[in-house]
Amino acid sequence: YNVGQIANQAALDLQQECIAEALCLAAAACNEAAAAQARTADRIVGIDGCERACTKQTLEQAGLDVTDHVIVSDLCIAKKAPEETVDINAVARVKNAVKARLDSISGGHG
């Protein structure tokens, strides 16, 4: 679905902007080394497309504690069939939601 595409693109963009490091969910699920490396992170952000929370569930099943969770469809982005191109405005909304969450929590500890 489009919301999964948006979640993935937001994660990749946040990595490119040096705000976060993206983790391949398949690697986390089947590769202990990938999950072990992720466990060293201060924060683990799960970006899910919808309320089914497949990303969060996969990370937790790999033994990772999801400290921050953003759901694309909770940001008034409708779940629909995948599109040829990802909606960049929707990606920006998701990135802003992640950044705001990280800023609000880290700002309280500074």
In short:
The chain contains 5 helices and 2 strands. With 110 residues, it is mainly α.
Protein model, in words:
The protein is mostly helical and 110 residues long. It is 51% helix and 7% strand. It is built from five helices and two strands; from the N terminus they run H-H-H-E-H-E-H. A two-stranded parallel sheet has the order 1-2. Helix 1 crosses helix 5. The longest helix is centred in the last third of the chain and has 20 residues. The protein is globular and about 35 Å long.
Shape: globular
How would you describe the oligomerization state of the chains in this entry? Answer: single chain
Strand order of the largest sheet: 1-2
**What is the string of helix and strand elements?**
HHHEHEH
What is the total tally of β strands?
2
- Structural class by secondary-structure content: mainly alpha
Distance between the termini: 38 Å
Q: What is the overall pLDDT average?
A: 92
Measured as a percent range, the helix fraction is: 40-55%
Helix count, DSSP H or I runs of 4 or more residues: 5
Strand percentage, roughly?
5-15%
Give Rg in angstroms.
Answer: 14 Å
User: Could you give a short account of the major beta sheet?
Assistant: 2 strands, parallel
Low-confidence spans: pLDDT under 50, at least 5 residues? none
